[in-house]
Amino acid sequence: MRLISALALASALMLGGGVAGAQEKVLSERGDVSIEQQSKVDMFRPEKDKETIPRNYDKQPPLIPHSIKGYNINQNFNKCMDCHSAERFKETGATKVGDTHYLDRDGKKHANISPRRYFCMQCHVPQFDAKPLVENTYKPAAKRGQQ
After folding, report:
1. What is the residue range of 110's domain?
2. Cβ(96)–Cβ(84) below 8 Å
C-alpha cells in the first residue's frame, strides 16, 4: 500500500509541475517549426546536372553533379557504371571512373572495378544547395604552386 502511495505521489509531482515543471523548455534547432512542417520543405535540394563544385583539397572525391534518386547499387548491379565505366563514358559524356578504382589492395589492375571501390557513395556524395547549419569560415588550401 505504501509503495502504491509513493508511486502515485512521484507521478503527481512529475506530471503536475514538480521538479520536471521547473525546468526550462528545450528549444529545437528548427525553432518553432514542427517536424511535419519542416519535412514539407525541400531542405536539401539537389543541384541537377550542374557544373561540378570545385574540390576543396587534394584527392577529395568529386561530388556527384546530378540526382541519384532511385539509383540501384548492390552486389549484382551498379547503376553508376551505366555511364561512368571505361566502356561508356565517351558515349554518355560522363566522367570516367578513375584508374585507381580498378586496382586491388596489392596494386594489381583488374578488368572490372575493384570491390573496394564498387559502392560509389562510400566516397562520392551528391552536391547540394543547402544553407549551412552552423557558421563556417573554412577556406580551401592553396593549390600546389600557388600562394
Report:
1. 44-131
2. yes
